[in-house]
Design goal:
The chain is an alpha+beta fold. The protein contains 5 helices and 3 strands. The two termini are about 20 Å apart.
Length: about 160
């Protein structure tokens, strides 16, 4: 079972992509789209301290979110993403520049995480679509690795 968590940058595109497949109820457990830091406290296991220490999307943030939501949904896999879609920067760090995304897939035994840039600059719509595509590709690779018994990319 899959439980996607696409909190910010993809804005629900990951869930919509999975749900567009006929028979999605056989593999789709549920999903969350949490846009604000406050909603992460209410639904994603964050504390006030987590929110106060948040400095932008990164592998550690999405890994923690993926672990929590996977466990909450009782899913086999949970894909989490968070990024900066644009059009402008939301800070000066790499994680706060448009086209940056952090992705993670949690399984029962591990989390595979990565950070990427799309090369699309501040094109918000294109970044959102590409963030979703990159996330779904990471999910696919993780499922294939698990089927092959590989442990590459664990954190």
């Amino acid at each position: 079972m899959i439980g996607p968590f696409d909190p910010i940058a993809a804005g629900g595109i990951i869930s919509a992509s999975l749900l567009s497949v006929p028979g999605a109820s056989k593999f789709y457990r549920g999903g969350l789209t949490l846009y604000t830091l406050e909603s992460r406290i209410q639904f994603a296991g964050w504390t006030e301290e987590t929110r106060n220490n948040y400095s932008g999307p990164n592998k550690e943030v999405v890994s923690g979110l993926a672990r929590h939501v996977r466990q909450s949904l009782g899913s086999t896999y949970c894909l989490s993403e968070s990024g900066t879609a644009g059009p402008g920067a939301s800070g000066k760090s790499r994680e706060r520049t448009p086209d940056f995304v952090a992705l993670a897939v949690a399984t029962q035994d591990a989390v595979v995480a990565e950070e990427q840039t799309t090369g699309m600059g501040g094109d918000r719509e294109q970044n959102m679509v590409e963030f979703a595509r990159l996330g779904l590709e990471l999910l696919r690779k993780t499922i294939v690795r698990n089927a092959d018994g590989l442990e590459e990319g664990k954190i």
